[in-house]
Amino acid sequence: MSETAKNTPEDLQDVNAEETASEEVAAEATEETVEDLEPQDPIAALEAEVAELKDRLLRQAAEVENTRRRAKKDVEDAGNYAITKFARELLDVGDNLRRALDAAGDTTDADPNMKTLVEGVEMTEQTLLKALEKNGVEKLEPLGEKLDPNKHQAVFEMPHPEYADGHVAQVMQAGYMLKGRLLRPAMVGVTKNPAGEAPKQDDTPGGNVDTSA
Question: Residues 188, 171: contact at Cβ < 8 Å?
């Protein structure tokens, strides 16, 4: 007798039940797949797309504005600091004029020709300084100020009865700023008094405190 012939009505009923259950599961899976494939709410989809496009537009607008600001600053810097190299060369001319005046010394008792020469050099120096100032070049006068590494270059230390330690006691070479940017640091000597001899002084220029009373 074959295996099929041995199946009883109860066995056949169980097989049919399993097949029916399998078909129901497959049908449910198919329905879920169909639901997943169904289009979403068109209004919600459009709103999401609009929000995304708006975000992209805002980002691009911000990038354009940043680019515009950078370009504007570059143009301003080019205009403000285009004379940097030329100004530095003129500073050398000013240094030589000042050295000539220092070398001449006191000309009170000098002959008229010498006085005239010195006066001419002084006028030339003043004209040069005014021309530099007119173009945004500012001379630094740091004597008595607290040492600022951003503007001053300390080349030596020295005792000084009027200035506290760490202040400019002597200016060897003047410094200059070009529209807020350092053009050349001032070369200075910095106060370093022996222990117990440093005077009291605040951090402002000319801020010495008289302690003799």
Answer: yes
Give dist(CA 113, CA 110) in Å, integer: 8
All structural domains of the chain with their residue ranges: 8-37, 83-135, 139-201
The fold of the 139-201 domain, in CATH, is Nucleotide Exchange Factor Grpe; Chain A, domain 2 (2.30.22)
Give the pairing of strands 175-178 and 137-140.
antiparallel
**Residue in this structure with the two tokens 């030589």, named with its chain if needed:** 96
pLDDT digits (tens, 9 = 90+) for 36-74: 545 568 888 888 888 899 999 999 999 999 998 998 888
Question: How does pLDDT run across 83-112, given as a tens digit for each residue?
Answer: 899 999 999 999 999 999 999 888 888 888
SS3 of the chain: CCHHHHCCHHHHHHHHHHHHHHHHHHHHHHHHHHHHHCCCCHHHHHHHHHHHHHHHHHHHHHHHHHHHHHHHHHHHHHHHCCCHHHHHHHHHHHHHHHHHHHHHCCCCCCCHHHHHHHHHHHHHHHHHHHHHHHCCEEEECCCCCECCCCCEEEEEEECCCCCCCCEEEEEEECEEEECCEEEECEEEEEECCCCCCCCCECCCCCCECCCCC
